[in-house]
Amino acid sequence: MSFLEGLNKDQRAAVEKVDGPVIVFAGAGTGKTRTLTTRIAYMITEKDINPKNILAITFTKKATNEMRERVMKLSGINAKYVTISTIHALCARILRQTISKIGYGLNFEIVDEEDVNKIIVDIYKDLDISKKYFSPRAAANIISSYKNGIGEINGIIKEVYDAYQKRLKESNQVDFDDLLVLTNEILTDFPDVLEYFQNKYQYILVDEFQDTNIIQYNIIKLLAAKNRNLFVVGDDDQSIYSFRGANVLNMYQFSKDYPERELIKLTQNYRSSNAILKGSNNLIKHNKHREEKELFSDVEGTLQDVTIHDAYYYEDEPRYIVDEIKHLVSQKNYQYKDIAILYRTNVISRNIELGLIEGGIPYQVYGGFAFLKRKEIKDVLSYLKYIVDPENMFHFRRIINLPARGIGDKTIEKLLLYKKEDEILFDAIERFHNEFPSTKSESLLEFKNLIVKLQELFEKLPLPEFYDEMLSLTNYKETLRNEDDEESNRIQNVDEFKSILVQLERRADLEGMSNKDKLQIGFDDVILDETVGTKQDVNGVVLSTVHSIKGLEFRAVFVVALEEGIFPSLKEDSDIEEERRIAYVAFTRAKEKIYLTCVSRRLIYGRVVLNQKSRFITEYVASLDWKEHLEEQKEIEDNTPIKVGDKVTHCNFGDGLVISESGSIIQVLFEKDHSFRKILRDHPSIKKRK
User: Is 207 a catalytic residue?
Assistant: First the structure.
């Protein structure tokens, strides 16, 4: 059992408790994957369990491949018979054998999101439903949520749902949600099918259990009902996907469903130092609904592992980050890929990306597109560029159907024939309409008149104001609103692009120039060079939302824009406990150093706003452990220079802790009111105590 060597006592307990229900609360960086794969190998090699009777459920294809590779390495060739699968792939496998019982053919087709949207668009036409009520994409999202046990449907959406399901069945098609719904239906209604799969999968393991939704957990319970050999591992403190239907309550319901369960907690962290973990522990303690646990590490670390940077103006944040990255790379032997910059929402990346480009630092946007490469940004760029150059057919083709005008390739080809004779596109549109009047030629004429009107406004208004007018007259944001979904932030990205135009207006070297020249120079500039900063460098700083980076780790992590309203998000439907879990996930990605940054004045959505510092910074740094660290020191005056980690006393604000320094300025967290204040290091009002 050499593969058990190196496991701590809690990991070993999770591996060796093979029979009966087991739930493992595995904190961040506590070796969850190693424990899970070792358990499978132990079951095969030490308990002689037939690998064909083992089912391991993961939640990403990548995790599936990694788990299979690790198990094969630990237990040999027999591990290939273990079923390691995502929940959707498992359900598809079950349906391929059983779906004929409910009237589908075994050769059913699985439709993707794009196919779903096209089907619903056709249904809207058949039922004569206006998109003003619900966009087809919004209807698809509501139907998906309903299938996953979230909310109800009625009225128009119920009509769409009934027609949609009828259309799918007639075409022998299922969507991703149907894979779950129909599997649950068959396992519930056909006891012989259920018994077959219960006998096949006598031992079931579930990874990332906190990310299961209601119907997924029900399928798992059905499969495990006969043998009750169910092992689930997850972390309620890292449940951050409620917008996808994940239900953290499954973690707590498990003990009610399986009262005989064994509960194990993995709390020894193998990723971060205690200096980093103490703040993370203190942060998550503010959540009331959680299984209590506290992470610890054998690596103690120092207060230098944590840096708080409270900038006054939004431009200072990327400048500081660039300087710190250069220092880490040049002085501390870091590679760029060892560093991550994390944010709550994609719109924050714009300012950071531009700072990295200007600083010559390679980067890659993880789990998403670089800001200037996103479709909606390229759309508005095309509008602006076409207004400047109305003969540019590349941009004409991109925007002619934004919003939809029914102009297809054949119509464009006919128009191009006219353009060959007239040379000027707008003249060609006029002649095309006069000679072949139709709804399509009318749409082309309306488009031409729209561009002419925008060209007139272009030189009359400052660029940011013109941008607002352009979005209004083109109805582009309304087009996005009909297509948008919760994760994409496309409308916010379009609003954020205005910030670039605000900065162009403020550039001294562009003062007095026409808007056309400002745009042309700005677009030629490196900041708006669409080829810069988007190469997915292997050795590049990682930029990512927290949701896209879960499960990864980095030597140094910058968590940026920690401000009330941004992180945490304070939308109406925001759950502050989930927002805190998102922060916890971000903070626990760091192995050696963590930087928490915020600004007092942030340029966002085209305007400068005053933001309060995030409560999460205060909760992180105002931990009991930090105070204990201070109390352990002797309270005697010291004349050596004040530095980070020193305890100080101010004549007005009382005792505090120095949390950052920059030149002659120190930043102090005062214990009495948890306020942050910047003070001259040698100011007579402040003294150091040791």
Answer: yes
